[in-house]
């Protein structure tokens, strides 16, 4: 039981958990009350979209695409509210049944309801000429691709570029994974109103590309009884801020935490500069560097204590970061084994992950560690480590590798997924695509190592807390990408690092309620 204190915008539930939370809420409420809450919120967002598009709701043309289930019911009741405010609302029924109460409510308020067959040109014309299309075809009950005539009407909406508001989830997206079974049979939403909580499909995979601007409305679901295995916690500014507090008046550089970095090599000195750049802004009071690029590191960052020697001789730290650009030779292998033997948190990135995948002794040394281990693969490194590609269910894949290796796993990507061996899982999903630039992962590794060292210096980390910190680091890294890309600027990894202080400040300014 882990859901205490979560907000709708941070709770990512499986469909099964949503169903149970809804059932528990419904048991306490009058019949239909949850759907009315959902429909009211939906009508508010639709109303504001219509004001943006046509200046007002009265006289605007709204088309509802209505499937067989409660998702269609939400659309119909919201349509009834818009019709009551003077919108011209047409409901197009695309399934062989529909929510009868919703359709009656729409008709009572002056809306029209009609059944649509494939090739119905009148229906296509209504979609093409609408000011707003509301997608109530499928919600969390959807399975697989849209069927006809829904797929065809979704295509008409896409091709005519009409504004689309998705109810709970863009139809045709798998709610739990974000998988899209057929790229030609899915709704592309400009906005999505999610009810009660998030679903992974809104943030991950192809689903994230179909969701548009995302609003989560509170319909009164409780997360108290949601099991760890059914929950992913989304990190936002409010949840990250408490973990980014600045030093206290009694702190010195050691009490703030010492992070060690062994990255880069003669061939790749840049990775050392970038990883230490990240480490300088992750709250640790002291950054050590041990490796071949010590001269380049000091030339860039005079505050980093950089030496050419071994990890084992570099002095005490509260976390080591090993791997980025470190190489695959015997010397790099020694750095990983040295660090693995220490009893402090260890972050392995890039080449260290490849060594772990290729060398059974390295893998065994890492798996046998008693201290917290954090692995930060991208999809390619993940596949090498796991022996299979990530696949469509990123959350399940990351949880499974974390459990197998007894390590926290952070899988990088447009959304970053983190899991601890016990199943605690997190997602950071607001990074801009500008982060997809060489070396930005090195900055993340340094940043996260620094955050781990800082927190380890205050209280020994357990894997679940390390996983939370990993997601916080990914969130701050994403925020730095956004700061760096502000005003349409181009972004390099060094720009991401340079934006970290402003990103930390931005996240700290958020004030959780
Ligand atoms: N249960 C509740 O308390 C609440 C549910 N709400 C809404 O209810 C939705 C879930 O409703 P339902 O459980 O009725 O499910 P949906 O409305 O998502 O759709 C399920 C129906 O579609 C059919 N179907 C599934 N995949 C299909 C496909 N690929 N092509 C064509 N038909 C397909 C199913 O056989 C089923 O009849 C949520 O997403 C949300 O919008 C909201 O009203 C809030 C309250
Ligand atoms: N499309 C994207 N949108 C947002 N962030 C992305 C995207 N693609 C990659 N990222 C992020 O950029 C970073 C790239 O890291 P990585 O793949 O390790 O690159 P490198 O090894 O060059 O440093 C990761 O933090 C990843 O999450
Ligand atoms: K929908």
Give me a quick take on this structure:
The chain is of the alpha/beta class and 513 residues long. Helix content is 42%, strand content 15%.
Structure notes:
The protein is of the alpha/beta class and 513 residues long. It has helices at residues 15-27, 33-54, 70-84, 100-108, 121-129, 150-160, 205-210, 237-240, 269-279, 294-300, 330-341, 351-358, 360-367, 379-386, 394-405, 440-458, 463-485, 493-498, 500-509, and strands at 11-13, 61-66, 88-93, 112-115, 132-136, 163-167, 191-195, 213-217, 231-234, 258-262, 286-290, 305-307, 319-322, 346-348, 373-375, 408-411, 416-419, 425-428. A hairpin with a 4-residue loop joins strand 16 (408-411) and strand 17. The mean pLDDT is 96. Bound molecules: ligand NAX, adenosine-5'-diphosphate and potassium ion. Potassium ion binds at residues 71, 135-139, 166-169, 171.
């Amino acid at each position: 039981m882990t859901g205490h204190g979560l907000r709708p915008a941070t709770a990512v539930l499986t469909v099964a958990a949503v169903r149970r939370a809804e059932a528990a809420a419904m048991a306490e409420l009058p019949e239909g009350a949850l759907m009315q809450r959902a429909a009211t919120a939906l009508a508010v967002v639709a109303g504001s979209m219509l004001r943006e598009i046509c200046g007002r709701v009265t006289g605007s043309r709204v088309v509802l695409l209505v499937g067989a289930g409660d998702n269609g019911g939400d659309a119909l009741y919201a349509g009834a509210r818009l019709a009551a405010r003077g919108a011209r609302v047409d409901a197009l029924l695309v399934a062989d049944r529909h929510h009868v109460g919703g359709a009656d409510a729409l008709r009572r308020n002056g809306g029209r309801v009609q059944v649509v067959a494939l090739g119905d040109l009148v229906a296509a014309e209504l979609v093409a000429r609408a000011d707003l299309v509301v997608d109530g075809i499928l919600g969390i009950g959807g399975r697989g691709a849209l069927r006809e005539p829904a797929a065809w009407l979704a295509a008409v909406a896409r091709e005519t570029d009409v504004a689309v508001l998705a109810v709970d989830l863009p139809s045709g997206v798998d709610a739990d994974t974000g998988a899209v079974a057929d790229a030609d049979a899915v709704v592309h939403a400009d906005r999505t109103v999610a009810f009660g909580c998030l679903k992974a499909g809104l943030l991950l995979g192809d689903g994230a590309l179909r969701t548009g601007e995302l609003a989560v409305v509170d319909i009164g679901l409780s997360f108290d009884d949601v099991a760890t295995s059914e929950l992913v916690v989304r990190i936002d500014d409010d949840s990250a801020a408490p973990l980014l507090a600045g030093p206290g008046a009694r702190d010195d550089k050691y009490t703030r935490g010492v992070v060690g970095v062994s990255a880069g090599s003669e061939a790749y000195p840049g990775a050392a500069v970038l990883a230490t750049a990240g480490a300088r802004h992750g709250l640790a009071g002291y950054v050590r560097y041990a490796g071949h690029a010590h001269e380049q590191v000091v030339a860039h960052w005079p505050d980093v204590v950089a030496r050419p020697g071994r990890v084992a001789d570099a002095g005490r730290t509260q976390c080591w970061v090993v791997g980025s650009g470190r190489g695959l030779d015997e010397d790099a292998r020694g750095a990983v084994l040295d660090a693995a033997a220490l009893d402090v948190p260890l972050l392995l990135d890039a080449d260290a992950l490849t060594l772990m995948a290729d060398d059974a002794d390295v893998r065994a040394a890492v798996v046998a560690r008693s201290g917290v281990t954090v692995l930060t693969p991208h999809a390619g490194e993940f596949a090498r480590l796991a022996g299979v590609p990530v696949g469509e269910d990123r959350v399940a894949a990351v949880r499974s590798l974390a459990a197998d290796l007894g390590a926290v796993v952070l899988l990088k990507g447009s959304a970053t997924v983190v899991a601890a061996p016990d199943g605690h899982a997190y997602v950071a999903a607001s990074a801009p695509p500008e982060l997809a630039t060489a070396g930005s992962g090195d900055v993340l590794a340094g940043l996260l190592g620094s955050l781990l060292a800082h927190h380890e210096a205050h209280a020994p980390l357990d894997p679940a807390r390390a996983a939370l910190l990993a997601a916080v680091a990914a969130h701050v890294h994403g925020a730095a990408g956004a700061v760096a890309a502000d005003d349409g600027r181009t972004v390099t990894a060094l720009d991401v690092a340079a934006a970290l202080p402003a990103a930390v400040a931005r996240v700290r300014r958020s004030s959780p309620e």
